[in-house]
Amino acid sequence: MTHNLFAAMRDRVVAALAVIVPDLPPEVAARVEVTPAKDPAHGDMATNAAMVAAKPAKMKPTEIAAQLVAALVADPDVAEAASAGPGFVNIRLKPAAWQALLPVVLGAAEAFGQSDVGQGTRVNVEYVSANPTGPLHIGHCRGAVVGDALANLMTKAGFAVTKEYYINDAGNQIAALSWASYWRYLEAIGTGLSEEAFGREVPGGLQYRGEYLIPVGQALAAAHGGALATADKAIAAPEVWLETVREMALSMMLASIREDLAVLGVVQDVYSSERELAAKGATDVTIDLLRDKGLIYEGVLEPPKGKTPEDWEPREQTLFRATQFGDDVDRPLRKSDGSATYFANDIAYHADKIGRGSDILIDVLGADHGGYVKRMTSAVKALGGQLDVLLCQIVHVLKDGQPLRMSKRAGTFITLRDLLDEVGPDAVRFTMLTRKSDAQMEFDINQAVAQTRENPVFYVQYAHARCRSVLRAAEEMFGAGATDGAALANGALESLEDEAELALMKRIASWPRAVEGAALAREPHRIAFFLYDLASDFHMLWNRGREDAALRFLQADRPGESRAKVALVAATAMVLRSGLAVMGVRPVEEMR
RNA sequence: GGACCCGUAGCUCAGCUGGAUAGAGCGCUGCCCUCCGAAGGCAGAGGUCGAAGGUUCGAAUCCUUUCGGGUCCGCCA
Length: 592
Hints:
Blueprint: H1 5-20, H2 26-29, E1 34-36, E2 45-47, H3 49-57, H4 61-72, E3 78-84, E4 88-93, H5 95-99, H6 101-108, E5 122-126, H7 138-156, E6 160-167, H8 172-189, H9 195-201, H10 214-224, H11 238-264, E7 270-273, H12 274-279, H13 282-292, E8 296-300, E9 316-320, E10 331-334, H14 342-355, E11 360-366, H15 373-382, E12 387-392, E13 395-399, E14 402-404, H16 416-423, H17 425-432, E15 441-444, H18 445-449, H19 456-478, H20 485-490, H21 499-509, H22 511-521, H23 525-547, H24 559-583
Parallel strand pairs: 5-6, 5-11, 6-7, 11-12, 13-15
Antiparallel strand pairs: 1-2, 2-4, 3-4, 8-9, 9-10, 13-14
Helix pairs in contact: 1-4, 3-4, 6-24, 7-22, 8-10, 8-11, 13-14, 16-17, 19-23, 19-24, 21-23, 21-24, 22-23, 23-24
This protein binds one RNA strand of 77 nucleotides through α3, α8, β10, α14 and β15.
C-alpha cells in the first residue's frame, strides 16, 4: 500500500496508456497527471492522459479516453471511470480504497506525507543572514519564517537540507558598529565627550545610535575598565581598542540575533563568517578560478542610465562577465583601488557552499535585494552550480487598522522581539506563511491574535484541539488504549462512507501530493492553505454530527463504528500535526 | 531610462506549474446549539481574473504590447 494514492493511480494510468499507445514517448508519459477532481461531481480524480497522448499517438483524445476508461473500470479500487469534456478521464474510487489509507496513515505516523522526490539531492537553504549590527526587525522575520519552513518542507520531500546563516562580519558596516559601540563604552566609563563631538571624530560619521548597544558598552567597561580609552577618558587610537570592541560587539549582536531566532523557533545548522572566509583568501581563489574560465577582464563600465550620480567618473575595474549568464551588465569584483567588492566576497561564499557539497543553493532574500538576483545566479552558474532565489516581498504591519511605519534612523523600528511578544511565535510563523512569498503582505496584528475563523492560525489549531478533545473523550468512553494507532488500524472501517467523512479522507490522502508540489515549487505557503482546507473539512464533519447523530464520532452503543470514526480523527490530527511541524508551529491540545 | 515582483468579489488573499461552471475569509442577507467545544457549520448575493492582441483542442496561468502599485539600479554591504 502506497502512501500516495494519486501517484499510485498515475502509475496505473500510465501503464494502461502504454497498452493503448504502445510506442508512447517517455517525455509524453511524463506529462500525464492524476489530480484531485476540482468538482466532486466529476469524481475523485481526473487525468489528462488522453489529451496529452492524443497528438503523438495520432488519435482523438476521446478515443484514447474511452479505452482508458475500459481499462480503469477493471481496477479493483475503481468504482467508476468516465470520459468527459475534451478528453478528461474522471475516476471515482470505491470508499474502501480511501478507508484503506487510514491504517497506513496511523502506521506511518509523522512519516506519512514524506516523499522521495528529492532523491537525497543536497540543498543548502540560506536565510536571515542579517548584518550583525543590531536586533532583527520585522523585515527579517518573513525571510526567517519562509526559509525555515522551506527547509523543513524540502527535508520532508526527500532533499538533504542544510540550514545556513551567512554572517556579514566584514566591511564598512562592522567598522561603523565598532565606532558606535566604542561610543557606548566611553559613555559607560563616564566621559565628558558629547555625542556630537564624538561623531566628528568618526570616519563617515556616527551610525547605529540605537540603545541596543548600551549593554555592549557596559560589557566592555566591565571587562576592560578604562584600558580602551586614553588616561583622561577620551578617544584612543583605534589600534588600542578597535579589534577588542569589534569582537565584543559582534559576539553580543550575534548572540542576541540567535536568541531572537530561537524564540521564533529558528535554529540553523551552519553559521558562516564572511571574515573567516576572507581570511582564508577565498575571494582571490574564486576570482582566479573565474579568470581561468575566461570570465574576468579589466574594463570600464557605462554610467547607469536614468539618474547618473553627480560624481560619476569612469574607472577601470576588475569585471565579471555576468552578461554571458543573463545579467544586464558585467559586474565589478574589485574596486578601482584593487580591493574586493562585496559581490566578489559573496561569490566566494557561494563557491564555498558548493564546495562543501550542495547540489542546489537556495537564497531567501528580502525584496530590496531584487537587483542582486541576476548577478548572483549568473555567478553561481559560472561556477557550475545552481542557485534559486526566493525573494520575500515587503511586510506592512497593521495594528488597530493603522499601519505601523518603521524608521530605522529614529530607532523606532519594530523589532522581531516586539512582534513575538505581542502575538507569539506560532501566530507569527503561520501568518507569515499565509501569502506566497513574492507578493506583498499585510500583517494585521489584531487578526493574528483573533480567536475566530478569520484567523487561520486559530482555525487550524482549533481543529487540532477538537481532534484531541475527541480522542481524550474516546479513552474515557472506551478505555485506555482505545486511541492506539495499532488498535485503530486493525478495526473495520467500512462504516466510514458519509460524504463528509469521505471528503476528509480524500483530503488526508492528498497530503503527500501537497508536500511534493509545495517542495518542488518552493512554496511553503501552500502548506498553510492545505491545513486550512483540512481543518475546514474537519469542522464541517464535526458540525454534521450535530444534525445527524449517526455521524458523531463517539457513540457508546456503537463501539465498532466509533472506533472507525476515531481512526479518522486520529489520522486527521496526525496530518495536522505534521503539517504544522513543517511550518514550525506547535499544535495545541486545547484552546483556552 | 532599465531590471525584478504584484494587479483575481466592496476589503485581505488562494488558484496545485495550461484544464471542465474562477475559490476562501471578512463585510452584507437569512438559517443551525435538550446533542463530542456555536471560538463552529449551512445557504444566498457579489467577477468582462487591470486592458488589448497572440500561442492551441483549452489561458487567471505562457508570449508581446500597454496602464496602475511596489522594490531596486556605478567600486554600500
